[in-house]
Write the structure tokens for this entry.
Amino acid sequence: MKLAVIIFTCACFIACNSSNDNKPIQTQTKAKVSEKKEQPFSLNYPEIKYNLVSITDVETRTQLINKYKDTPLNAAYLKTLRTLNRKELQFFRVGQSVIVPDSVINDIRAYSIFPDEYKGAQDIPKVIIICNAMQAYACYEYGKLVRFAAANTGKERTPTFPGRYALAWKQRLRLSSLDSNWVMPYTFNFHQYAGNAMHQFAMPGRPVSHSCVRQFDDDAQWIFSWGEKARLNEKNEYVFMSGTPLIILNMFDYTRKTGGPWLDLASNKSYYVELPDKPMEVEEALIPFEQIPKSSRGVLPNRKRYVMAQQVLRDRGIIREGVTLIETFDFNEQRRKKAAQEAKEKAEHDKKNHPSEQSQPDSSSNPNS
């Protein structure tokens, strides 16, 4: 039916054109097509003003959190409040200042500090951009913003270094291989050797992690479902850097002892993160050898690059002068060694204090017992 309509329309066009002038049909068609221009992608959200509110007492905090209680906007408001301040509500404490929007939109992208359209990524199916300085990240599909979220990255002595990574493997609920007391829901590893991962964990509103990227629970769930794992080779091993690209930008200003630059924003349109023109040409992240777990150091694909990394990062000013990195430490191994030592000491103590028990024959092996 559609084909018939098109043929009929074209026939009418040719008939009318031949009766009025002798201009070539092809020229007319080209002119008509050239008029169509691709419109830039925009979410078209209005400007939302931010107010910096000081939490002077418990009552102020309660009023702030309950501002939209029992209204349809409550869930969106609380999500916005957490995201704008990069921390969970339990960390909204008396004596602090927080930013509060003057209106609520039920799409967190309305508050994004990343541009709606990323032309440099328009040919990339999926890419994650994390901004250390602003403790937030964006997800793009073919250059269009599909997710904006808060993050808490690494503290200064165990930082999350800038550069290009890629999602590798994921695990719904993971106990850290370095410390089994660290329970990490929705873990998505993005460096197979350093152990860096995106996962849910406490969000106090500052870079505090051991180089991982912490997220709120709903954001961690979303990334866990949306991201693409690394491909497997013929040996059933993950192909390095083959999953969803992940770019980490800049560094947090660790000289700032409270809050972060997001508290200085006047509105949702007052600042946008500057994105690299060619994300896939961003240098692969440099990870110092000291931050590679000992169990992975023997299988590094380019050991020299990791050994030289700390000095290069210092030369570039990424690691500040006078800052000493904390070497990756295996708390699980420490506990195992401690338990073994305690068991050994107990056995020696028992032998010393109960020698008769130690020298008695085993009655179960005595045929005359």
